[in-house]
Amino acid sequence: MPRVISGKAKGLILKSLPGKATRPSLDRTKEAVFSILQDTYVGGLVLDLYAGSGQLGIEALSRGAERAVLVDQSGKAVQIVKENLEKTRLKERADVYKMNALSWLKGSGKALEKSFHVIFFDPPYEITLAELKKLGPYLEALLAPGGILVVESESHGFPLEKYEAAMPNIPLVKHCKYGSAMVSFYKISDETGA
Fold first, then answer.
1. Which residues of the chain have pLDDT under 70?
2. CATH T-level assignment (fold) for domain 27-156+176-187
3. pTM for the full predicted model
4. What distances in angstroms separate CA 122 from CA 9, 43, 51, 149, 192, one per listed residue?
5. How do the domains of the chain map onto residue ranges?
6. Long-range residue pairs from 42-48, CB within 8 A, at least 24 positions apart, any chain
7. What is the per-residue pLDDT across 35-59, written as a single tens digit (0 to 9) for each?
């Protein structure tokens, strides 16, 4: 069972979705991700797109993020996100949307351009380049100057070029393999925001 690793809600066990529809991040992967991010999210706004159980957004809130937006198209996932936010007493600092990623990015997300310090992006591993290219420009527009996009993908046959082609204006700064997952960090420039 996933748990909150650090911060206000440290040690609390989070519910996760049964079955193989989602891939909860392993605690060691999550700990490594937040170690790399250090305090990028503190006091800022975080987006957890394809949120699943919401554990990345919740971890960021626990560690000091000002607010988190969690988006998932699954009704079951959204219910579990809400239960996890209730359990961790972080629901007042979170907005939860039951929508597919592209619809949210085109709708509610548009009003939040250049707002997010961290975006957690964990789409289905089988996402196509065509789908990524639809999402890429919106993700770029949402990152604040100095903001970081954290992408989780499969480590076997890692399709790095697929993400670089979809988001050419966000340079890759680091990628790490954790078991069957690859986590990549893309960062917007501090100066220009592009």
1. 19-25, 157-159, 191-194
2. Rossmann fold (3.40.50)
3. 0.91
4. 23, 23, 8, 10, 26
5. 27-156+176-187
6. 44/116, 44/117, 44/118, 44/144, 45/69, 45/112, 45/115, 45/116, 45/117, 45/144, 46/116, 46/117, 46/118, 46/119, 46/120, 47/71, 47/109, 47/116, 47/118, 47/119, 47/120, 47/142, 48/120
7. 999 888 888 999 999 999 999 999 9
